[in-house]
TrEMBL record:
Gene3D superfamilies: Cysteine Rich Protein (2.10.110.10). Keywords: Developmental protein, LIM domain, Metal-binding, Zinc. GO terms for cellular component: nucleus. PROSITE patterns: LIM_DOMAIN_1, LIM_DOMAIN_2. InterPro entries: ISL1/2-like, ISL1/2-like_LIM1, Znf_LIM. Residues 5-67, 68-129 form the LIM zinc-binding domain. It is found in: Nucleus. One of its GO terms (biological process) is neuron fate specification. Its main location: nucleus. One of its GO terms (molecular function) is metal ion binding. It comes from the Eukaryota. This is ISL2 protein.
Length: 138
């Protein structure tokens, strides 16, 4: 209800004829609801994301808080196809053997050694320098 609500952005009383409500309990002056990162006005025409009481546009929220590729560290777009290995997520083009650079495709056998993906041909060989230190443990 205008006049009784406090703006989540500036803290002032909202006496305007219109207010914007985000989530069930946060109300904003129309002029105060802006992306905390880029300042883009967030109104009824665009998607608004909240984190720790701050509002973000979709682009900045994805860039700051979205899942990132384990290889290139770039964010994913909603249209990206991904590959997963344990709790790591990769762009298709980033899902490559760390030793030979071959792109790994669905159905390929691979090994995940720490953060490195290794194709079947390369995961049986010891890491660089391991042969000079002695035999591998089982």
């Amino acid at each position: 209800r205008p006049g009784l609500a406090l703006c989540a952005g500036c803290g002032g009383r909202i006496q305007d004829p219109f207010l914007l409500r985000v989530s069930p309990d946060l109300e904003w002056h129309v002029a105060c609801l802006k992306c905390a990162e880029c300042g883009q006005p967030l109104d009824e025409t665009c998607t608004c994301f909240l984190r720790d009481g701050k509002a973000y546009c979709k682009r900045d929220y994805s860039r700051l808080f979205g899942i990132k590729c384990a290889q290139c560290r770039a964010a994913f777009s909603s249209s990206d196809l991904v590959m997963r290995a344990r709790d790591h997520v990769y762009h298709l083009e980033c899902f490559r053997c760390a030793a030979c650079g071959r792109q790994l495709l669905p159905g390929d056998q691979f090994c995940l050694r720490e953060r490195d993906l290794l194709c079947r041909a390369d995961h049986g060989s010891p890491p660089d320098g391991a042969a000079a230190r002695g035999p591998r443990s089982p």
